[in-house]
Records
---
Amino acid sequence: MNSKFKGAAVLALVLFAVSPLLAHHSLGTEFQMGKPQAITGTLARVDWENPHIYWQVDVKEANGTVSHWNIEGLPPSYLHRSKVERSDMVALIGTQVTVHGRPAKDGSKLMFGLDFTLPDGRVIPVGPRANDPNAQ
Amino acid sequence: MKRNYFFSALAVAAAAFWVLSPAPASAQSKTSSQKSADTKYDAPALHKGQSAPAPHTADGHVDLSGMWIEKYAALGADTAAPEPQTHAAAEAAPRYPSDALPYQPAAAKKARQLFDSGKADPLLHCEPYGVPRIWGGPHPARLVQLPGELIVLYERDTAYRIIPTDGRPHPKDADPSWMGNSVGTWQGDTLVVDTIDLIDKSWLGIGKNAGEGSGTFHSDSLHVTEKFRRRDRDHMTIEITNDDPKVFTHPWTYTWNMNYVPDEQMYEDVTCSNEQDLDHVVPNQPAAK
């Protein structure tokens, strides 16, 4: 192994080994979990379903076209237990939101959502918390 | 060479995560509001330390009945960064989750290949969790202890088991199934549940991560022993031993620490009503040798 990669590779192993139980399958096979990403657009749809909640966010591109982004989330039960409810999310349809998350590995307009940041600064967490001791 | 490519890809991903996680300016400016959001959205607290004695049923056994959860999933905003890990812990971390299990050499190779494919997990194909993978994680299970049987209702996968505890043996020719055939016996205050006739399509799960995508296959000879021990009102351990002489060199054991959550409720949890992940899975490169 190239020595300059060694330290980071060790960290990668740790990250990999302690990745929390996030969902019904391994997220690392689908998303670049080490690459933060943010998109801003209008929340257009909420599919509050198992095994993953999906949100559609419409993002206006520089050329004036609109891209439809799919945001994948945790199962509804996880969010219920942290007091994030379907009605909270549905009420945001039509609102401009910034979503922080992790991009799909296949390059599609899909990301794993970690939080929704609203125009007034409120942050609604929807993804797993880093450092969650219960997840290690 | 191929292995170097794999490590390099991981390294890049890790470096990006560790360096960039706290970095987005738009997110960093919201640190204070984010902290309040994290508190507001905290999951319910679990009881720590010793609690009241475990209750007993009329027939004198410890009563396992109640709603139990291993942990809650804590939600958090994106800017929370992981704590630095120790070098020793890093070196102890297995590259493949299945490497932590005592697979025989050929089986270890197969488990790695399943992991690398990214698409082999039965859950991605709308198949059940099965025993023992059904346990653990942020989905509660409701235990109902009756004279002569234990009923387990799982939120995960909307599944259930009915386990006789009346001394009957396993049937002689039970069909292979995802939950297998279980019988329980009391050994003091411990209920020991013995499960065989498990179908060889399920994955085992591994320790704290329940085998998410880990390739932890088994054979049709899998024999699972679950030891339920409610040590006080709020805490129960489930010690699980997997014995499969066709793929493992010896039996191996892990323990779930369950917490009593009487106010918790069940939500529907189905695996594949809206499954959209399989088409986006990108296999690891290269496949394991």
---
Amino acid sequence: MNNGKEQILSAQLMFSVGCFIQSSTLLTSFIADVAGNEAWIAVIASYGLSMLLVRMYVKLAKLYPGKSIVQISEAVFGPVLGKILSCFYIWFFFSLAILNTSDVGFFVNNFIMPETPKMAILLMFIFVCAWAVRRGVETIMRYGQLFLIMGFSVVGLFCILLFKDMSFDNLMPVFAMPVMKYVQSIHIVTIIPFCEILAFTMVFPYVKDQEKIGRSLYIGMTLGAIHLLVVVLRDISVLGPVYTHVTAPSFQVTRLINIGNVITRMEFFYEVAVNILIFFKVSVLLFAAVLAVAQTFHIKSYRSLVIPIAVLVICISMAPFISAAESGFWGSNIAPFYSAFFEIILPFFTLIAALIRSMIPEEGEAGLK
Amino acid sequence: MKNRFRRITGVAVAALILVGLTGCWNSRELNTLAIVMGIGFDQANDLEEVEITAQVVKTKGIKGGKNGGGSSQEEAFINFTEIGTGSFDIIREFTHVSSRKLYFTHNQIIVIGENLARSGIRNTLDMLSRNHEARMNVYMLVAKGSAKDVLNLKPELGEVPAMEIAQLMEAQKNTSHTPDTFFYEVTFSLVSKTAAFVIPTVEIGDSAGRKVLIVSGSAVFKTDKMVGELNEKETRGLLWVTDDIGSGIIEIAVQGVTAELEIIRSNCKITPEIGADGSVKIKLKITEESDFGSQTGSVNLLTMENIQRMEEAQAQEIRKEIEMVLEKTRTLNADIFGFGEALHRKYPHQWESMEAEWNEIFKALDVEIEVETKINSIGRIDQPNYPSKE
């Protein structure tokens, strides 16, 4: 499926990875509920752990240059088992797209327009995402570059405006919680923002400079991690004890900005920025799902699949959970294990199998490439 | 054929976007809004119920620049009152009497009546934390008496009492006899197990025969009930410790004459210490800078020795204010300074065992106060207006 026309530069990949991680700032309430005021430690530790885990993806890319993870599964495990694994990946990207879209629905519904029916919000949102995916992956990656800079500017601006409300004392008691809490929060932060860049393994075939994939991923992750850390630090230092009580800490924090009674009500900046960032994330996930389907079933072009899958996403994201409480429970308790299966266990076995394969000399086979 | 199909699709998509992306579902026109400027909560005669007063702006009553004489005697505000059990329910009940649904995003102040304050405010305020229209940086006040009366008082300088009160709160920084407490600061303390908080008090007083609002002193809340009051000096003692001093005047007596010093800035560092025997000590270090404002008498206070004497007298005065408030809070047993939180930050493991007995520990707490002051500028004259002694 190497569409020779579309090429992504490694810089675009780098920025897009950073932007993808930035989009998770809406989800900090998952981390807040578990880690409380020490969430920032969890972020730093998870960053280190994720760097190790992402090496798996980079190694797989190096062993099979120019292939996406679906194609790699097929190459490593053979046509039948590979396709089964690919179906797992398809489901994973699809479910992530659904969960993120429902997050957008929840966010807009809860804070901005309470009476608007979710269908209207989600329809508009997915409409734009599907349009972007149909345009092609190059378009999406270019957006990533732009949005990363936008994300940094918005966060930087808010940090400056909130500086007088920050009290760094709130960060203080460190290492005062039971160890299991740290383990749990590091688990959550590693899996949910950082390792979801598995979606970018679908983009690998389009990258122009295959050797630089590793470097792009690492630097992109670092950029995203810096953003996440700054956001978490800012939220904790402004909100202090209420950090765990608030539904969306990053949003609540922007409502407190009041400079000279003139610069107030800045939350609209935040709302717009979050919408744009999640649009990017869902576009990438949608693209990953669509391309995975196309590659698994050997369909020539993925463009015709975009609309049906997008419609399915809208339908299911109307109500993936029974209630908001279940959504919170899912995020803190179940999602880390659910996603870990797809993000860590499957690529790990693929990597082991690939390494074993590369050690056995090929005996007269034409190769399954 | 294909071109026409494309054009039709294009138009359809454009129409879909126009309709869908403008967010009209939740729109409210400006003339259906009743913009609330201030809310008052009182305890109704039936102890379970709350009386809510909402002050709504009447734009017709606000005099423009042209109407000089004030021919229209309309007031610029109207107060709606309702009684009920749940805050959200009461606020919706206002639609029975008000032609417009209340709109809270411009709310300036929250006033709580004294009776309600004494019986607990946490449950009444839950709605304000949760609702997405209510803002977090709203001034909070406790009214001595009822909140309804405070909101009914027609202001002298302004037109809407709530805005007047909000501006009054902003002006308090100049004397620092009252804290300006925001709603979100109150929620910080409500969430903590040991912290107590203060809310400024407002009362209706007499000034030259007219009724005016007087804001001074504060009310001390423990958990969420009002337990006592602090007068002006005690409140300022608290503000020295929590670093909320804006400006203010300190009066001291040196060499038989009195001097007045204007506070420019102040900083307090709280250091908790747990001794080897488990005793808890809190060290406060206050650094303050002030300007020389005025003096009485003919003794020139601007000599090197006198300036030093003034700095010591000033430090003594600050120490006195802090000791006054420490004593008051020991009798009330309310940790309004955040000493518990400071201990938690520095000694998280010992704090776990201390937290449950914080009430007793706080009563016996040993507080060491160290004050360092400096007098900066001296004014335009360097001797008092007396004939010079030959």
